[in-house]
Design goal:
The chain has helices at 11-28, 35-42, 46-52, 56-70, 83-113, 117-144, 154-171, 178-192. It is mainly α.
C-alpha cells in the first residue's frame, strides 16, 4: 500500500524499487531484506522508499500485486481448450513464478500475516485470492462441461492444489516447479474423475 506524503514519485524509480525488492528477497530471504538494501539496489535514497511505503512488507505487497495484475495465467481462456490443460498451465505459471521470483516474499509475508490481520486480508485479496478464483472457475467449468465430476468439494481441490505449493515453499523438501504442476493437475483429474 502506498503512502500519499511527499512529492509525486517517479514511475521509473517506483518500478525499480518493486523489481529489486522481489529480486533481493528471493536472493537473500525475507528476514534479511532491508529498506536500505532495496534503496541501494534501486539507486534511490532510503527516504524515497519510506516516502512511498512504510515498510518492506508494503513494498513487497505492491510488487506482488503488480505481478498478479499483469499475469496472463490469471485470465480464464476461451472454452476451446481442455480445462485440465488450462489448470496445468495456471499451476505451472504460479509454481514457476514462486521458484524464480516470489517464493521468499510470499513465505515471509504469510508469516507476518499470522500476526497482522490487515496484512493477511491484503495478501488474500491481492495475491492469493485471484489465483484461487481462477482455479475454482476452471474447475467449475470442467464440471459443467462434463470433463470432471464434482466428487469432492471444489474448494477442497483448490486448497489441495495450492496447499502442495505452500507446503513445499515452507518445508523446502522438494521443488515447486512445472513437475509439481503436472503431478497436481493429474491428481486433480483423479480426484474429480470424469463427468
Amino acid at each position: 500500500m502506498t503512502g500519499t506524503r511527499g512529492r509525486p514519485r517517479s514511475e521509473d524509480a517506483r518500478r525499480a524499487i518493486l523489481r529489486v525488492a522481489l529480486e533481493l528477497c528471493e536472493r537473500d530471504g525475507y528476514q534479511d531484506l532491508t529498506i536500505k538494501a532495496i534503496a541501494d539496489a534501486a539507486g534511490v535514497g532510503r527516504q524515497t522508499v519510506y516516502r512511498w511505503w512504510p515498510d518492506k512488507a508494503a513494498v513487497l505487497m505492491e510488487a506482488l500485486a503488480g505481478l498478479a495484475e499483469q499475469d496472463p495465467a490469471l485470465r480464464v481462456h476461451a472454452e476451446s481448450a481442455a480445462v485440465l490443460a488450462e489448470i496445468e498451465a495456471l499451476l505451472t505459471a504460479t509454481y514457476e513464478l514462486t521458484r524464480r521470483l516470489t517464493g521468499q516474499a510470499l513465505v515471509g509475508l504469510m508469516a507476518d500475516a499470522q500476526r497482522d490481520p490487515e496484512l493477511s486480508k491484503r495478501l488474500q485479496e491481492t495475491v492469493i485470492g485471484p489465483r484461487r478464483a481462477v482455479l475454482r472457475t476452471l474447475l467449475r467449468r470442467g464440471v459443467d462441461n462434463g470433463e470432471f465430476a464434482e466428487t469432492v468439494p471444489l474448494d477442497l481441490v483448490v486448497d489441495f492444489a495450492f496447499g502442495a505449493m505452500w507446503y513445499r515453499l515452507l518445508s523446502r523438501h522438494a521443488p515447486v516447479d512445472g513437475g509439481l504442476a503436472r503431478e497436481v493437475a493429474a491428481a486433480v483429474a483423479a480426484m474429480l474423475g470424469r463427468g
